[in-house]
Specification:
By secondary structure, this protein is of the alpha+beta class. Helix content is 53%, strand content 11%. It has a 7-stranded antiparallel β-sheet with strand order 2-3-1-4-5-7-6. The chain is elongated, with a radius of gyration of 35 Å.
Length: 388
């Protein structure tokens, strides 16, 4: 297969300006550029632009797919409203990284495998729609995508065994469609996810009541309220309501230390998770082997039953089948001889279950005597075990 690279960028918070579009056109004369997107495909050569710079200046989502096993997915989030320090706990070399820029934070999810390690390869065009929802999840304080990417670090062996896991987000046992898409995009083993999710509680999605919000707002310091209002007025909070509800939930979690956020439990090490994952894979392999063996036994029983039914039918029509074998032999053709041997094999097995082997042996001797002058037939009989 020839070289293939897909670059896709998407703007969400604001459309591209004319200056932005002219700058992008200077980077590629054949890219598909709109006021909210930039898409280009390469079968030779490479993109002249730097995806980091494009994200910092113009876009909120980036997807890259190459047919030699490399995949990248990047999100741009407002620096003022994103807890970068907390997110750094989930960074894992080769799987998830974080860059802090002047006004934004860039989160990159990646996987770089050897060619041929992916069962299927695609052109990359469908991932943007599948993964973009993760940006909204992070804005809502949903950290599951980061934890999944950290788990990918275990799978690719980029984390030291003594390292401890970051906080386990709630809801890991019930992944949304964008999260399942990320699992597929990064190729994360579902057995590893199930092991890690054992300490994850249920995710609360209920909206806070007016009284809860009122109580929380009253608890905020005046200086903090002023700072929040200033960011909103200056446009640093693209979605003020989403940001404030996220802050409320984070404050509630911190206050109540709810089970399932991972902070109230002893953190597992990478080595412990890897061992639990290995044991789970071994158990799965044993279950699959047992099921395969049971299926083979079932098929064998079914075949044996069908064979016995067939032989009972042969026994009931033995005289007619002996005549049919004689007709096949009389054709003096290889196919005729082969068919005659098949019929004789059925007659022999039918004689065994009917306790009539002596009768069969006598009829076989008579047949061999009648056709002793047919060496090709005799050879086939001897090869099939019908010795004289």
């Amino acid at each position: 297969m020839s070289e293939y690279q897909y670059y896709g960028f998407q703007a969400i918070d604001r459309p591209l300006s004319e200056d932005d579009m002219q700058w992008l056109r200077g980077l590629s004369t054949r890219a598909q550029i709109t006021t909210t997107s930039f898409v280009n495909v390469y079968h030779w050569g490479d993109f002249r632009g730097d995806p980091i710079k494009l994200m910092e200046r113009c876009f909120d989502v980036f997807v890259y797919v190459a047919n030699w096993g490399c995949r990248r997915f990047m999100l741009r989030l407002p620096r003022a409203s994103f807890d970068a320090a907390r997110a750094e706990q989930y960074c894992a070399e080769g799987c998830v990284s974080l860059r802090q820029k002047k006004d934004c934070v860039l989160l990159e999810f990646s996987r770089d495998d050897e060619p041929g390690e992916w069962e299927e390869w695609d052109d990359g065009s469908g991932w943007m729609a599948s993964l973009t929802g993760l940006r909204g999840d992070l804005s809502d304080g949903d950290w599951r995508c980061l934890y999944l990417a950290w788990l990918c670090g275990i799978e690719v062996n980029s984390l030291p065994g003594r390292a401890t896991e970051p906080p386990v987000p709630s809801g890991m046992k019930d992944l949304s469609a964008p999260l399942r898409a990320l699992v597929d995009f990064l190729g994360i083993d579902t057995e590893l996810i199930e092991v890690a999710a054992e300490r994850s509680g249920s995710r609360t999605t209920e909206e806070p009541s007016a009284s809860e919000l009122n109580k929380w707002i009253r608890s905020l310091a005046v200086a903090e309220k002023d700072k929040l209002l200033l960011r909103i007025v200056q446009g640093e909070e693209p979605n003020p309501r989403r940001s404030l509800v996220r802050r409320f939930r984070e404050a509630a979690q911190s206050h109540h230390a709810t089970r399932g956020d991972g902070d109230s439990q002893v953190r597992r090490t990478v080595a412990q998770l890897s061992e639990a994952w290995r044991q789970r894979l071994d158990a799965k392999e044993r279950r699959l082997a047992e099921r395969a063996e049971q299926e083979l036994e079932r098929k064998a029983r079914a075949e044996a039953q069908a064979r016995r039914k067939h032989l009972e039918d042969v026994a009931s029509r033995a005289d007619a089948i002996w005549k049919q074998a004689s007709v096949c032999i009389a054709k003096r053709t290889p196919k005729g001889y082969d068919r005659a041997v098949e019929l004789l094999s059925d007659l022999k097995d039918a004689a065994v279950i009917g306790n009539r082997t002596e009768e069969f042996d006598q009829q076989l001797r008579d047949l061999r005597e009648r056709h002793a002058g047919k060496p090709n037939l005799i050879l086939r009989l001897e090869q099939a075990g019908f010795a004289g």
